[in-house]
Here is the input.
Amino acid sequence: MGDVLQEAIHKYGKEHQTLVAVGELAELSDVLAKSLRVDRHEDFKKDVLTEVADVYICLEQICMMWGFGLDELYKEMEYKVKRLEKRLNEKSSTL
Here is the structure.
């Protein structure tokens, strides 16, 4: 999969692929907002899955374009999740 994503970056350029990512993020945002305005969220499950897949692909390309390895990305994610956990624990102790 990585080879295809790298080839797309090479063929279409970083600027174009960045704009594609922005568009895909907007599409995910739109479908999530629409899902909140209806009673049956299940109707949007396939749409959300499709847009999340598109966003994941774009995020992989962004990492490639900016030179982030998965180790670096996961380390940053772990830091952020631990920070969230700390905030959650602080709030629950003040309730």
